[in-house]
Design brief:
- The structure holds two protein chains of two kinds.
- Chain A has helices spanning about 10-30, 35-55, 60-75, 80-100, 115-135, 150-165, 170-195, 200-225, 230-255, 260-270, 280-295, 295-325, 340-355, 360-375.
- In chain A, α10 (about 260-270) runs antiparallel to α12.
- By secondary structure, chain A is mainly α.
- Chain B is mainly α.
- Chain B contains 20 helices and four strands.
- In chain B, the strands form two sheets. A two-stranded antiparallel ribbon of chain B has the order 1-2. A two-stranded antiparallel sheet of chain B has the order 3-4.
- In chain B, β1 (about 75-85) and β2 form a beta hairpin.
- Classes of the chains: A mainly alpha, B mainly alpha.
């Protein structure tokens, strides 16, 4: 069995890994106020580690790579923080159990290996706990250091939890319900941030928005993947990519001063899945897949998506109002618009291209889904 | 003559006209966006040319499409244009359905949008958001045509979304003022409520009928081919679509948002709250009218909501001190009447009412900035003298009742307060309750603060536009 899996799922992760690496370079550059070889080196390391994690088939190598990544992030940030450690411990334990107790040497074996039910349940619980830890929007201060896509939790969830969950009937019932509840909580937190936004410093509010929005989008991903439905699975994979693009665009536009308001609103349109963006395609597939499973789940998804959009709009409005209130001159003044950055244009362009010509990308996501479930998913 | 009609109504020609109508405004917006991000600062004349050309192209195609549909009554144009993507047996298709109803509203859009684009090219000249306005008008036109011509609820939803977001962003057009931003937030939130209802209807339609195309689900044009839905399913669907229509057409109790929407430029108010967007809810109810035949409760609700809105919005519009506010409420009131007509099954009347109202309201909105001047001109033309207020039926009422009605109309019958109390405050309270585990607010210098973010490099605050600064500097010299 090959230790490396350069399958369609790998190619789905690679673009997101590139964007995450670019984000690391960008954050380092912003912190040091100039282009620095350190930033490029850390970005390169991030890209290398994420692509290796996406490509590896070995659970133990995955654990080693994730520990290495934690060490590199520590050397970059000079700080430990609880969420990252908790996530790594949770999915690391699950993978060690899988490799040592379950005697699984490659993720590719999971679709046809027979594991002890208790062991399978323990592994699923640990991975789902890691997914929840990656989703809950706590610790606003950690936002600039966190990744926007929770790539390791996503890879483990897709590579391990999906094939194992296919033979555990409760998985497709409990996890979607928990994910739907989690998405509602994140959307309400975002609404809370939006409605009391004037109490926040704008930069804190940006972190708050990014974390809550990330929580909503990741919850949708877990929700879609866990159902085991083909349509929602494909939609969830696309939703992950769409979510990352939207979050990157939101962060890049909201952190820039003067605020590029047109781009900020376009990033909002990406996050709320405006037709013509990749998010719309993802949500359409996700909603129809959930409808196949249970209409109530589809209805919950739709309601949370609507609350999330309204909350995000309110939060964005509050940021602009706050920034305008900081001007000392009374009355409306003409602020020059900030020029869009490379990250904004790249993410917005990619989102539009995929949204307008989605067919090849949907085919890619379909192949990626087939690669991770290995024939265990339910087709519509 | 028949052979000419037949030749003109051929499928390829209709196909081309539909494609131009659906894609031309979007292409215009796309070109303007590309120009804006490329760093090129296009001359305002070029902006209005690009927008005018694409919007006018779509409008001409739309009017031709409507004309050809009217020439051949009973020959609907129902076609799948292309498949966007397919996963397994699921396909998302771009389909169109053009009958006399959709043709009428398309013709209205075709007549109105180029007029507004032309008007705006002078009205908003030298505004900082000139390009943004035309981009959003293109998006709105795209949304409107996709909604009206869409052959399925999925397609209609695409247009509905585009229309909603462009409308909210146009309300926020003067975003140097905080009030407009806050108002646009309220408008967007109301539209999201309508979106939830439309999506619920869409999910329900897929669930109960297993299909989403208007022609097959509702048997539009051929009632015998409608998917049979039970009374319960029809009622659920009818009520869902009614709530969606209430949001889009500003029906009771959601009427109040149109007043906030008047923060936008007059042209966008005319586009959305006078002519196009306000009629989309009515169109939706007219479209699903065959469904209401099997849902008496939903039909009754449509009539009740429509009549209640007609009365309350009409009274509120009479006490509004501002022209645009009065017009917006009057539009909501007329939309209420159209809903009632649709509820009673008078679809033809509602359709013509919609067309006439759209055109009248367009003229009124566009003249509203010079309303006083117009009034003086009319008075002069009639030989001067004092203004006469005309006949008001409410004067027949006892004074106490009239005063009570006046007070109620001023507060818009407490609808906004009711919405706040029933929905917004509980939702906000729930949001705050759920977010209790977040890091709590800490007092610092008397101001609440949450957490501490990564320090961001402070950019200089520009208080004036560079052009204005340069002018000031020249003045100082």
């Amino acid at each position: 069995m090959s230790a490396w899996m350069f399958d369609a799922f790998f190619w789905l992760v690679v673009p997101v890994a590139i964007f995450e690496a670019l984000r690391v370079v960008h954050v380092m550059r912003r912190r040091e106020q100039r282009w620095a070889p350190r930033g490029l080196a850390y970005g390169g390391l991030e890209l290398a580690l994420l692509t290796m994690c996406a490509a590896t088939g070995s659970p133990l190598l995955f654990v080693v790579l994730s520990v290495l990544r934690i060490a590199i992030i520590y050397s970059r940030e000079r700080q430990w923080w609880g969420r990252r450690i908790a996530k790594a411990v949770l999915f690391g334990t699950a993978l060690v159990l899988l490799a040592v107790v379950g005697d699984v040497s490659s993720f590719a074996q999971l679709s046809h290996v027979t594991l002890d039910p208790d062991l399978r349940l323990a592994i699923l619980v640990l991975i789902c706990a890691a997914a929840v830890a990656a989703t809950v929007p706590v610790r606003v201060v950690d936002e600039p250091k966190e990744t926007l896509s929770a790539p390791l939790a996503f890879i483990v969830f897709a590579r391990v939890a999906l094939p194992l969950g296919a033979s555990t009937p409760q998985f497709a019932i409990v996890v979607p319900v928990v994910a739907a509840a989690l998405s509602l909580v994140c959307a309400l937190w975002l609404l809370s941030a939006g409605t009391r936004a004037n109490h926040f410093d704008p930069s804190v509010l940006v972190s708050e928005i990014i974390l809550c929005e990330r929580g909503v989008l990741l919850s949708f991903v877990w929700l879609g993947l866990a159902t085991g439905e083909h349509l929602s699975g494909v939609g969830a994979l696309l939703q992950w990519a769409a979510g990352v693009l939207a979050l990157l665009a939101l962060e890049a536009s909201l952190r820039r001063r003067p605020l590029p308001r047109p781009m900020a609103f376009f990033a909002l349109a990406m996050a709320v899945s405006l037709p013509g963006t990749i998010g719309f395609v993802a949500e359409d597939l996700l909603a129809h897949g959930l409808l196949e499973l249970h209409p109530l789940l589809a209805a919950a998804f739709v309601i949370v998506a609507a609350i999330n959009a309204a909350a995000l709009y309110l939060a964005l409005v509050n940021i602009i109002v706050d920034l305008q209130a900081r001007q000392t001159l009374p009355g409306p003044t003409l602020q020059p618009e900030g020029r869009p950055s490379f990250m904004m244009l790249a993410t917005a362009g990619l989102s539009l291209v995929i949204g307008l010509v989605p067919s090849p990308f949907v085919t890619g996501a379909t192949r990626a889904y087939a690669a991770v479930v290995g024939g265990t998913g339910r087709t519509n | 003559m028949d052979w000419l009609t037949h030749a003109l109504s051929s499928q390829p020609l209709l196909h081309v006209l539909t494609m131009i109508t659906l894609l031309s405004p979007a292409a215009g917006s796309f070109v303007l966006v590309l120009l804006s991000i490329s760093g090129v600062k296009p001359h305002p004349r070029w902006i209005s040319w690009v927008s005018g050309l694409t919007v006018a192209g779509a409008a001409i195609a739309a009017v031709l499409l409507a004309g050809l549909t009217w020439l051949r009554p009973g020959h609907e144009f129902d076609e799948v244009l292309w498949t966007v993507y397919a996963v397994g047996s699921y396909h998302l298709e771009v389909s169109v359905y053009v009958d006399s109803l959709s043709g009428s509203l398309t013709a209205l859009g075709g007549c109105v949008i180029p007029v507004l684009a032309r008007f705006s090219s002078r009205y908003l000249h030298h505004e900082p958001g000139y390009l943004r306005f035309f981009v959003l008008v293109g998006v709105a036109a795209t949304g409107f045509f996709w909604f009206v011509l869409g052959g399925s609820i999925d397609m209609a939803f695409v247009g509905w979304e585009l229309l909603g977001l462009s409308s909210a962003l146009l309300v926020a057009f003067f975003w140097e003022r905080s009030e407009t931003l806050v108002a646009s937030g309220r408008v967007f939130a109301t539209y999201r409520l309508a979106d939830i209802a439309l999506l619920a209807g869409m999910v329900g339609l897929h669930h109960y009928a297993g299909d989403s195309s208007w022609a097959s689900v509702l048997g539009v044009g051929n009632g015998g081919h409608a998917v049979h839905l039970g009374s319960f399913a029809a009622t659920i669907l009818g009520l869902s679509f009614l709530v969606a229509a209430m949001g889009k057409s500003a029906q009771v109790p959601l009427t109040g948002y149109v007043l906030r929407a008047m923060e936008g430029p007059t042209v966008s108010s005319a586009l959305f709250y006078g002519t196009l967007s306000i009629h989309c809810g009515v169109y939706l109810i007219l479209r699903i009218e065959p469904l209401l035949a099997n849902a008496p409760i939903a039909r009754g609700a449509v009539i009740a909501v429509g009549l209640l809105t007609a009365i309350t919005a009409s009274l509120s519009s009479r006490v509004r001190p501002d022209a645009k506010g009065a017009l917006a409420l009057a539009s909501a009131s007329q939309a209420g009447l159209m809903l009632a007509e649709a509820g009673f099954g008078w679809t033809q009347l509602a359709m013509w009412h919609m067309l006439a109202h759209g055109l009248l309201r367009l003229a009124q909105f566009l003249r509203s900035p010079s309303w006083l001047e117009d009034a003086h001109a009319r008075r002069s033309a009639l030989g001067g003298g004092s203004f006469r207020s005309g006949f008001h039926a409410e004067r027949l009422l006892p004074t106490a009742v009239r005063n009570a009605l006046y007070a109620a109309a001023l507060s818009r019958f407490g609808m906004d307060a009711l919405i706040d109390r029933l929905f917004l405050r509980p939702l906000a309270a729930l949001a705050h309750l759920v977010s209790m585990p977040r890091p709590r607010l800490r007092e610092r210098n008397g101001r609440p603060v949450v957490g501490r973010a990564e320090p961001q490099p402070e950019a200089p605050v520009h208080r004036k536009h560079p052009a204005i600064e340069a002018t000031d500097a020249r003045g100082a010299r």
